[in-house]
């Protein structure tokens, strides 16, 4: 095949993907940028131009700042929790051969289940009168801790967050366990003979070898904290009284419940703009670590 024929084939293969990207990504993004500068209610075909009014209102809206603070909590705890627990679980099962496939499937299964199903089931678990969690607490003598987990403003966000950590834990565990299989055990054994304890071997030997994968998992988990929506929407809808409201659910309610399409779009655009710098920084860090590892 000649070089020109190869070029034509390459273009032919890329064109369908470019069309899909243009239709489902580029065009909606351009459309969203237009909507944030008008006041569109979903009906008026010629919405009035308002300039930066949506962003001005957004910056002064206390509900936005409350939702943003919940996003920060979600980003921190929803990233640290699965990473720490997933790494600990992967280290615990690192050298386990018997039943390893079962463990991977069992822990990864929640991650591939529909978020709606997960939210409904955990809603039953958190149910105040018949839920398993309160019944277990009463059984072990901790009845004073029972509460309406999803109806209590003090616990609603953390209850949903615990469910999300449980879901994401399996993904982190499987990826990090696979990365640990590639660790050079000769170096680990040499460090053990030199007197390095378990923590020192983890920090100075194991983690540097799996760092590119570790950063990739961290990036995916962290960015999920910016765009979280479905599990909160299913379990609490952002309630009670906005206690579990995040930017994603606030954008949805503004756009589709209050018919403020432009304001909801502005919120969605803000979520994207907040996530991009973290994605770029972590991606560059991952590439730099990968290059250092191959040099």
From TrEMBL:
Keyword entries, A-Z: Cell membrane, Membrane, Transmembrane, Transmembrane helix, Transport
Q: What's any GO biological process attached to this entry?
A: transmembrane transport
Q: Does the keyword Transmembrane helix apply?
A: yes
Superkingdom as given in the UniProt entry: Bacteria
Main location per UniProt? membrane
Family per similarity comment: Belongs to the binding-protein-dependent transport system permease family.
- Name a GO CC annotation attached to this entry: plasma membrane
Q: What is this protein called?
A: ABC transporter, permease protein 1 (Cluster 1, maltose/g3p/polyamine/iron)
State the annotated membrane topology for this chain. Multi-pass membrane protein
Sorted alphabetically, which SUPFAM superfamilies does this protein's record hold?
A: MetI-like
Q: Which organism is it from?
A: uncultured Frankineae bacterium
A Pfam family assignment:
BPD_transp_1
Residue ranges constituting the ABC transmembrane type-1 domain according to the UniProt record = 68-282
List localization entries: Cell membrane
Instruction: Return the CDD domains for the record.
Output: TM_PBP2
């Amino acid at each position: 095949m000649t070089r020109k024929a190869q070029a034509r084939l390459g273009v032919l293969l890329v064109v369908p993907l470019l069309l899909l990207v243009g239709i489902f990504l580029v065009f909606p993004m351009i459309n969203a940028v237009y909507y944030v500068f008008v006041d569109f209610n979903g009906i008026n075909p010629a919405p009035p131009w308002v300039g930066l009014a949506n962003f001005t209102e957004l910056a002064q809206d206390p509900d936005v700042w409350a939702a943003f603070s919940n996003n920060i909590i979600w980003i921190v705890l929803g990233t640290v929790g699965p990473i720490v627990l997933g790494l600990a679980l992967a280290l615990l099962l690192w050298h386990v051969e018997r039943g390893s496939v079962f463990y991977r499937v069992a822990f990864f299964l929640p991650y591939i289940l529909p978020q709606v199903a997960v939210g409904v089931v955990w809603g039953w678990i958190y149910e105040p009168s018949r839920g398993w969690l309160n019944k277990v607490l009463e059984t072990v003598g901790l009845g004073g801790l029972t509460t309406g987990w999803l109806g209590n403003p003090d616990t609603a966000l953390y209850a949903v967050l615990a469910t999300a950590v449980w879901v994401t834990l399996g993904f982190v565990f499987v990826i990090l366990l696979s990365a640990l299989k590639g660790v050079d055990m000769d170096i680990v054994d040499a460090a053990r003979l030199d007197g390095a304890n378990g923590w020192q071997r983890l920090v100075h030997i194991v983690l540097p070898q799996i760092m590119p994968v570790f950063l990739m998992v961290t990036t995916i988990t962290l960015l999920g904290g910016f765009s979280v929506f479905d599990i909160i929407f299913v379990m609490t809808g952002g309630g009670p009284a906005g206690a579990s409201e995040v930017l994603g659910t606030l954008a949805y309610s503004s756009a589709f419940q209050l018919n403020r399409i432009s304001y909801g779009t502005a919120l969605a655009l803000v979520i994207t703009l907040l996530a991009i710098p973290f994605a770029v920084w972590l991606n560059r860090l991952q590439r730099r670590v990968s290059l250092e590892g191959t040099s």
